[in-house]
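Worked Example 4.2. Consider the chain below.
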Amino acid sequence: MKRILDMAGPDITQHEIDTVIDAMENGWYEKPYYYVEKFQKEFAKYHNRKFAIMTPNCTTAIHLLLSCLNICEEDEVIVPECTWIASVAPVTYLKAKPVFCDIDKDNWCSDPKSIEANITNKTKAIIVVDLFGNMPHMDEIIKISKKYNIPLIEDAAESLGSKYKGKRAGKFGIGSVFSFHRTKTLTTGEGGMLLVDDEELYKNCMIWRDHGRDGALPPHMRNPNQKMYFNEHVTFKYMPFNLQAAVGYAQFERIDELVGRKKHQLEFYRNELSSVDDLTFNEQSDVVDNGAWITSMVIGKSHKIDKETFIEKMSKLDIPIRPFFYPLSMLPPFNIEKNKRKNPVSYDVSDRGVNLPGSARLTNDDMKFICDGIKKVLK
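Applying the procedure from the previous section yields the following C-alpha cells:
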C-alpha cells in the first residue's frame, strides 16, 4: 500500500472538539468572546507580555501594529530578504517601502550588520522574522533599534516554543506577532495574535481592530462617553470569533505536548541524517532553544544540487518537500535585480534550502522513510 505523507497539519483531539462544542452551545449571548479573552490572557502570560490581541490571521496582526505605529507613504521598513510574503505585504498596504536586508548564514534570520547598513532617515520600523523556529541575534538587533530609535517588531509566526537566552520568542520588540494557520504548531485554522507591553499602543490597536470602537477593551479602559454606533475613526474589522479562539485555547492547553513533538521531529531528522555530510538544519545552540515549527535543511554545495532539482527527485519517491522561501526581491511584485549582489547570503541559502515534512501525524517510521529517500537522492 502506498504510504501517504502529509507535509504539514495539526493534531486535533477530542479536547479541542469538546471545547468548540462548549463555545457552540454557550458562546453566543452572555459569553460571545469568552474563549477569545481566555486565550488572549493565557497567551500573553505564557510569553511574559502585558497584552495580547487576537486577530483573524498573522498578516492582519502586522498590518494592525504598523498602522498604529503610524507607518505611512514614503516611510521605509526593513524586512529580511528570506521570509514568507506575509511579513512584508502589510508594509505595501500602507504604501510604505520595504527594504530587504540580508540574512545570517547560520540562523537564516536578519543579519544585524545588514539591518544597520540599510537604515536611512526614512526608516520607521525594523521587522525581524524568527524563521522556521530559528532566532536572530536579538541582543545586537535590539541595540541597533535603540541606537537609531526605530521600533523593532518580532514576527514570531514560525517560532512558538522557541527561546533566545531563556526568553520566549514573542517577547522581543515593541510588538510581536504569531500565526495560528492550519500548518502551524498551534492552530485555529486561520488566526493570529499580537503581543505588546505599552498600554497606549494596546488601546489603539484594540480600537483600530474593531471599526474605531473601544467595546472590546477592558471596562476601565473604555471611554465612558462614547455613544453606540458613534465611531471616531474609520479603521479595520480584524476581530476574531469565539469558535476560532476555542480551538486555539484548547490547543494552548496542550502547548508543551505540541512543541515537544516538533522538537522531536527536528532531532529525529538531524540524528537520522547525521551520516550524510554537508547538511545544515535549524539552529540549536547554547543561545537558541529551537521550537522547530518545521525542520529545514540547507544542502551543502558539495552535493551539487539545487532545491528545485532535489524536490523533483524526492517527489518521484512520493515524498513531499517544500522549498525554502525565495528571496522577496526575486518575486514579481518587487523584482529588485540589484539585491542578488546586495544580499548574497539570502540568494545562496535559498537556492539550497528545503523544508522536510512536519505534519503532526508523522510517525518515526514515516520520518525514517523520508530520511532513506534523502540519502538515496544525495548519495
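The mean pLDDT is 96. The domain at 255-378 is CATH 3.90.1150.10 (Aspartate Aminotransferase, domain 1). Compare this with Example 4.1 before moving on.
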